[in-house]
Amino acid sequence: MDFINAIILLLNYIFVPALAYGSQLALGAIFVTLIYGILRFANFATGDMMAFGTMITILFTWYFQSLGISLGILPTALIAIPFAIIFSIAYMLLIDKFIFRYYRVQKSPPVQLAMVSIGVMFVTQAVVRIIIGPSDRRFFDGEKFIIKAGEFKEMTGLNEGLAIKSSQVLTVFITIIVVSILFWFLNKTKTGKSMRAYSDNEDLALLSGIDPKRVVMITWVIAGILATIGGALYGLDKSFKPFTYFNNMLPIFAAAIVGGIGNPFGAFLGGYVIAFSEIFLTYAYKKFFMYVLPESMEPETLVQLLSTDYKFAVSFSILVIVLLYRPNGIFKGKVL
Amino acid sequence: MRKNLNVIAAYTIMLGLIILVGIFQSWNVALSIFNMCLISAVMTMGANIQWGYAGLINFGLMGYAALGGLAAVLISVDPVQEAWVAGGFNIIMCIWLIVVMILAIRFVLKNFEKSKIRTYGIAAIIVSGIVILRITSEPSIEAIEAVNPATTGFLGGLGLPIVFSWVVGAFFAAGLAFIVGKIALGLRADYLAIATLLISEIVIAIIKHEDWLTRGVKNVIGLKRPVPYEIELQTKEWFINLVAKFNSNKLDLISTVTDKQAALNQLVIEGSSVFVKLCYSGLFLVVVIALLIITQKALYSPWGRMMRAIRDNEEAANAMGKNVVKQHLLIFILGSAIVGIAGAMLVTQDGLFTPGSYRPMRYTFLIWVMVIVGGSGNNFGAILGGFAVWFLWIEAAPIALFLINLSTAGLPETHELKIHLVESVPYFRYLMMGIGLLLIMRYRPKGILPEKIEIK
């Protein structure tokens, strides 16, 4: 019985939250990796583009709520996301047309494009803050929990409760759907294959008659979808605050690089690597050992490897280690 | 003279703008903008050395600035005796432990062939080292933090004049840059940018949460100043006379004695804060001019030419027998040290150290905007960028407010859109920075004052 309690404890405090957080990171990391693989620059506006998509989602959610439309137990934001995606795609294509395209045509070095993306970051940040303000916003409605800790305890008669938020389940579920469609698209369709070819060898792709404009456009379309969904899911699960989104750019970058930048599958796994290691290393295992070990060996301290203050630092240290030993990331190999 | 005309013109306009602020807003505001401009200029010079001279991207400026600030705390604060008694010995032992750990890693790296076992061995040393460190340091850290937590709760510093910290801050930053450079400089440009950004976040996390050393988010306030305090100045005879002399025209107009005294008091209070700011300006100007002379000399020296050669064609420079790796590391350390000086100067001016305020927007990306806008590779350009961008950063809100009022003049005061826009005035500075950066990068990619290399 104690053993089951220990497992439930880990599930509740480590596995479920890390799975949800990892999915949110994974979507962002695929976004970074796609832009890097096809447009060939590190996009420092990632976090703020995600904030932009989330902001539109929130605005639509409010609009639908004022109309009285709702999904019952599901959050209203789910109807809002498709509309938000359209707006974010439009925003990204606009940015690409007026800003990034010039440097692409000029064949500027990636560093210059990265600098330009910092300009875009400033502008997007300003737009988001001017439209919706810098404060913390929650826009989750509907049924909050699938299983509450108390109910779970009653049901099973265990000491430890397992709470699963519906936002967590939604996050994992939607991530799996989106990512599978994306991989199907990249690997099976002609357009997807042309994108991979373009990322692998631009000149050769151009020679084979692939239209670069179309590839770039589709990349931004996918980027818009990923940014909006990733951002909205993070906002549903936690809350929407522009500054947090900007900060999330850092673990997202870490995930993309750990997975091997330019490799979407690597980025997908990288998100989970980062999320799990962050939570694993900063969790206090005292209670876990109390269940597992006999009473005489119970630990007196918290048995915490690192204090939770260092949560972010963990993912960055992993990144530094990966960069040192495998500069191409864990899952190097084929590109895109 | 003629070829430097645009430099002179740009600086005249910039100083003119600051003087305009002095005339229309107040001299206090103008001087505080000027001082921050000087500090920003030092930071941009550091970034410019790395980016403009050598083409290295360092997005970790924030970390170095924070270390400089930490130096200001560790140098100027008086040591907390009780805390040292409570846990000082243990902390020193822990520092020794870290040194032993590093030596052990070095030993393993030097004496064993590169292999999987060596990698795991190093990992084992690090993990066991961290575990031992945590076990040994925890009681003493708790003891130190328990000493009068409301006012101290940390080890304190050395109690020396704060100006020394400018040098020490440079050394702190240089030490960090050495480690970061060893780790990350081999990476490609954009990887380097990301890696340095993330490492600086780690540094900030450590400064924020190691309360025994830095007081963390509880902040250190009331640092000693290198210049007189306003309150003391206001009671000094010579200062009051000075103010009276400066404002004799104004004071002569007032007839009654009591009114005259009240007016003089007011002027003395204003004057004291202007005087303090002027003292800071003097100190900062010395640093800026000294650094400018050194960096200009370096730029035109054989070493500067070598750096440009490395920047423009690494392989060719390598083939000519220049040690590219070593020079990159050197310039990375030098640039970071300058940013460290700026960080210490900033804390000196503010008189307080707030680890929570170090954010990448303000201390990394804004500085980069300054470098790009001003003109990378040109020291005068970098300094001008520091001035222009900081000026805009501060004055953006009033400008935005003016523009909003102008464009919504037709709307009534209570219109929702107008209220919303007026409330979000502070964020227009981001918009201006972004648009400014994008315009400069598009239409003047080398900055306002582009790099000009003359062979003398």
Attribute tags:
heterodimer; A: 336 residues; mainly alpha; two-stranded antiparallel ribbon; 2 strands; B: mainly alpha; 77% helix
Report on this structure.
Chain A is 73% helix and 1% strand. Chain A has helices at 2-39, 46-67, 77-106, 110-132, 149-156, 166-188, 190-200, 202-207, 212-237, 242-258, 264-282, 286-292, 311-325, and strands at residues 145-147, 164-165. Chain A has 336 residues and is mainly alpha-helical. Helices cover 77% and strands 0% of the residues of chain B. In chain B, helix 2 (27-54) runs parallel beside helix 12. Classes of the chains: A mainly alpha (336), B mainly alpha (456).
Write the layout of secondary structure elements.
The complex is a heterodimer of chains A (336) and B (456).
Chain A: H1 2-39, H2 46-67, H3 77-106, H4 110-132, E1 145-147, H5 149-156, E2 164-165, H6 166-188, H7 190-200, H8 202-207, H9 212-237, H10 242-258, H11 264-282, H12 286-292, H13 311-325
Antiparallel strand pairs in A: 1-2
Chain B: H1 5-24, H2 27-54, H3 61-76, H4 81-111, H5 116-146, H6 164-184, H7 189-209, H8 211-214, H9 230-235, H10 237-246, H11 248-253, H12 257-299, H13 302-312, H14 314-319, H15 324-350, H16 360-374, H17 379-407, H18 416-423, H19 428-443
Helix pairs in contact in B: 1-2, 1-17, 2-12, 2-15, 2-16, 2-17, 3-6, 3-7, 3-15, 4-5, 6-15, 10-12, 16-17, 16-19, 17-19
